[in-house]
């Protein structure tokens, strides 16, 4: 499969990374909404990866919070 467009580059990628780190829930929603309207396969793949990364970061935060709560309660 030949790609005509390289996908997202530069500032949009930097914005996605910053949003994922600081606002993972909002980044997850944004990635899923943008993916629904995107027709370019390269950009859809990047948005899917962004959504998975945001969800993973959310789960990591929840796990760390639960572990810290368990440690401090005992």
Descriptive overview:
The protein is mainly alpha-helical and 74 residues long. It has one domain. The chain is 80% helix and 0% strand. It starts with 10 loop residues before the first helix and ends with a helix. The model has no long low-confidence stretch (mean pLDDT 90).
Task: Identify the overall geometry.
Answer: elongated
- Helix percent band: over 70%
Mean pLDDT: 90
Give the SSE string: HHH
Main sheet: strands, sense, barrel = none
Structural class: mainly alpha
Low-confidence stretches: none
Please, how many domains? Answer: 1
Taking Cα atoms only, what radius of gyration do you get, to the nearest Å? 16 Å
Q: How many beta-strand runs?
A: 0
Number of helices: 3
What is the rounded distance between the termini? 56 Å
**What share of the residues does DSSP label as strand, in percent?**
under 5%
How would you concisely characterize the structure shown here?
This protein has 74 residues and is mainly α. Helices cover 80% and strands 0% of the residues.
Key features?
single chain, 74 residues, mainly alpha, elongated
Blueprint (SSEs and pairs):
Elements: H1 11-22, H2 24-37, H3 41-73
């Amino acid at each position: 499969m030949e790609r005509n467009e390289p996908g997202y580059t530069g500032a949009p990628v930097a914005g996605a990374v910053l949003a994922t780190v600081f606002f993972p829930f909002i980044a997850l929603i944004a990635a899923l909404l943008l993916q629904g309207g995107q027709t370019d396969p390269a950009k859809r793949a990047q948005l899917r990866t962004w959504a998975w990364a945001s969800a993973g970061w959310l789960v990591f935060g929840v796990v760390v919070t639960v572990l810290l709560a368990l440690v401090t309660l005992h």
